[in-house]
Design a protein that fits this description.
Oligomer: heterodimer
Strand order of the largest sheet of chain B: 7-8-9-3-10-11-13-12
Distance between the termini of chain B: 28 Å
Strand content of chain B: 15-25%
Number of helices of chain B: 13
Order of helices and strands of chain B: EEEHEEEHEHHHHHEHEHEEHHHEEH
Distance between the termini of chain A: 29 Å
């Protein structure tokens, strides 16, 4: 995966600008395009054990099985896939909430999987997370001020004691909430407002990277758009990089600059938003895109939906060779014996892990 | 199908409905929930109808009352706290709300049945699925165990569960999400109902599985000539399968139209806002238009038009006067003072 971010030509200016100091910093001046995170061959296997006293491992759920990508400054990398494809495990690995079985993740020239203690804590300031469910991810017994200010207890140097309240109010203002509501409790807010609280909490330590795990899927349609717009304007303002994990392909198309499609623990195709949505070459991506209902009844007749048969196989026992072959209409003998690598294919200048990668017209109606 | 302008719109354009009006008709239904904190007016005068063989989509966000209306039709509302102060639910001309419970039970499942969103919590985890499908047949049809089992296998084959005969003894947790939803569908079809209410049947599923389930539902609806009420918040799913669509907001139907006209030109600012605010797969990202504000608190529904605090076109009239349901011809209605202007794009 070459760093192929054509989105911004000013990639080389500036260099190591640290996390923004003030929300009022104007957008667009941050040097974009430079790689902030490089993930190499990350693997996470969860052991399956048998026995009560003498546990022995009888297998492993291969949740994430060799994932590599790069994240550039100021860009949004969308990660899509069906449930069980490992996208949330990947998010947890990047947050160091799970320990990877193998692999590296280079952040500021250091492998974040190797850090511990104080170094790990400092690294964590740079990578924050917005969770899916705004109802369970906020402690109901804490006020909004305490929730958003809690990161300052762990990182006291981020905001001096006296200035914390003011800083929290700035954050509330930044995410579009009334700063006077600092003493309210989560139940006094609606779902969309709660998600804003979660975003404010993620922003408290001025991170460079925010991992968003399904940040809008629990919200109503009319509220989704508000939160998506907020995430976008915060990105412009603060030069944030997002890893945006979602199962809703329309939302990802809207927000992402680049998109990685995952299937059973592996990335099967990665490219710019245009490459993935307009010119996908992997059959799984094509099937996934064709299955998304388009809000236009006129497209009903023209839409050619690729019907996948069956369910996603168990990640404890993935198929040999290409993992998608059991549901793929193109599968041949080679697919069972040789695993296709995620490399550039002749047909298209973006990586695709399929022996028979080819363009297909009109995948999206 | 002329929406309630006259006392009874008895025309049946598709000619398939029973002679006397519609297969199912909800008339001016009100539902309140009495709680300690006051009463929440959840349904405020909902009317819709359904004819044999058609699919009506009821679209709305959480709290709009779309599921409560369905639960009122099924007679599975918890009363109390729910109260139905007024309204009628006519099934083949009989008002279900006036029926005694044992009569009502004969309708439930056999005439009108329902599939729920979350199949995992709707199924009983400690019984095999085949037993659960057969339960209804044994209790309601008085079938013997062996017959019920045979029929359960048939039903599982009908909803395309592979190796039905082998899987009949499996428990819900042994099935994937899509397969569990198929089991739910099999159960809802067991008594051969005329109306199927699908409450967010695919919300918990992945897109590829969603496509399979929506296909299956469409196929079964055609083959068994059922009428379907599809309750959803997903504008994409609606566009794919529905004939007509009723948009709900704050316990009212604020717009009703056939699906093509509605997507072509919405006649209510809320519908317009919804259509503009969804990110689309077939369009590149640009800033989304949003509907400002929040859905209303049902304890304190705004005066006048309930949508006025969020409506970009709201005027004084909207604050003062509750808009009546306006007919726009072609079986279209909109509950907006300026429906015609919105429809023509003049507003």
């Amino acid at each position: 995966m070459a760093a192929s971010d054509p989105t911004n030509p000013q990639a080389t200016t500036g260099g190591a600008a640290t996390g923004g100091t003030d929300p009022a910093r104007t957008g667009g001046t941050k040097p974009r395009g430079e790689t902030v995170l490089r993930v190499e061959n990350v693997v996470k296997h969860f052991p399956i054990t048998q026995g009560v006293v003498f546990k022995r491992q009888i297998g492993a759920v291969k949740a994430v099985d060799g994932v590599s990508f790069e994240l550039n400054r100021g860009e949004t990398l969308g990660i899509v896939g069906e449930s069980g494809c490992g996208k949330s495990t990947l998010a947890k690995l990047l947050m160091r909430l799970e320990t990877p079985t193998a692999g590296r993740a280079m952040l500021e020239g250091r492998d974040m999987f190797k850090l511990s203690g104080g170094e790990l804590r400092r690294m964590r300031r740079n990578v924050q997370m917005v969770m899916q469910d705004p109802y369970t991810s906020l402690n109901p017994r804490m006020t909004v001020g305490d929730i958003i200010g809690e990161p300052f207890d762990i990182h006291p140097d981020a905001a001096p004691r006296g200035a914390r309240r003011q800083r929290v109010q700035e954050l509330l203002d930044l995410v579009g909430l009334n700063p006077e509501h600092i003493n309210r409790y989560p139940h006094q807010f609606s779902g969309g407002q709660r998600q804003r609280i979660g975003i404010a909490r993620a922003l408290a330590l001025k991170p460079e990277i925010i991992v968003c795990d399904e940040p809008v899927s629990a919200l109503d349609v009319s509220i989704q758009a508000q939160v998506i717009n907020l995430l976008e304007s915060l990105q412009d303002e603060l030069g944030l990089s997002y890893i945006f994990i979602a199962h809703d392909l329309s939302v990802v198309r809207h927000i992402a600059d680049r998109v990685a499609v995952m299937y059973l623990g592996k990335i099967v195709e990665i490219g710019t938003e245009d490459e993935i949505y307009e010119r996908p070459t992997h059959p799984y991506t094509q099937a996934l895109l064709s299955a998304v209902p388009v809000p236009d009844p006129k497209a009903r007749a023209q839409r050619e939906i690729i019907r996948l048969v069956g369910d996603v196989p168990s990640p404890a026992n993935p198929p040999s060779g290409c993992r998608f072959r059991t549901r793929c209409w193109k599968a041949q003998d080679i697919c069972a014996t040789t695993e296709p690598q995620l490399v550039l294919r002749a047909v298209e200048p973006h990586p695709s892990a399929c022996h028979f990668a080819e363009l297909k017209q009109h995948v999206v109606a | 199908m002329n929406e309630r302008s006259g006392p009874n719109g008895r025309t049946s354009p598709q000619g398939v409905a029973v002679d006397d009006g519609h297969l199912l008709e909800v008339r001016d239904l009100f539902v309140e929930f009495h709680t300690r904190d006051g009463s929440a007016k959840v349904i405020n005068g909902v009317s819709y109808h359904l004819d044999a063989g058609e699919t009506l989509a009821v679209l709305g966000e959480s709290g709009s009352g779309k599921s409560v209306t369905a639960q009122a039709i099924m007679g599975i509302l918890d009363m109390p706290p729910a109260v139905i102060p007024s309204g009628q639910i006519l099934y083949r001309g009989t008002d279900l709300l006036t029926l005694p419970e044992d009569e009502r039970r004969k309708v439930r499942g056999k005439q009108i049945s329902m599939i729920f969103q979350d199949a995992l919590s709707a199924l009983n985890p400690v019984f095999p699925v085949g037993w659960q499908i057969g339960e209804m047949l044994r209790l309601r049809e008085g079938m013997s165990r062996a017959d019920a089992k045979r029929r359960a296998i048939e039903l599982m084959e009908l909803v395309k569960i592979p190796a039905a005969r082998q899987r009949i003894g499996d428990y819900p947790h042994q099935f994937s999400g899509g397969m569990r939803q198929r089991v739910m569908i099999a159960m809802s079809l067991a008594l051969d109902p005329a109306v199927l209410i699908a409450d967010e049947p695919t919300t918990a599923l992945d897109v590829t599985v969603q496509a399979q389930i929506m296909d299956l539902l469409g196929e079964l609806r055609r083959d068994l000539n059922m009428a379907m009420i599809l309750i959803t918040h997903d504008l994409g799913v609606v566009a794919d399968v529905a004939d007509r669509i009723a948009v709900m907001y704050a316990g009212r139907i604020i717009e009703h139209a056939d699906v093509h006209s509605l997507y072509e030109a919405p006649a209510h600012p809320y519908t317009k806002g919804l259509l503009e605010s969804i990110p689309r797969l077939d369009h590149k990202g640009q800033r989304l238009t949003t509907i400002r504000g929040l859905p209303p608190n049902l304890m304190r529904i705004p005066s006048g038009c309930p949508f006025h605090p969020r409506c970009p076109y709201a005027r004084q009239e909207c604050v003062d006067v509750v808009p009546t349901v306006r007919s726009l011809g072609n079986d279209r209605t909109s509950a907006c003072h300026f429906a015609q202007e919105v429809l023509d794009g003049r507003i």
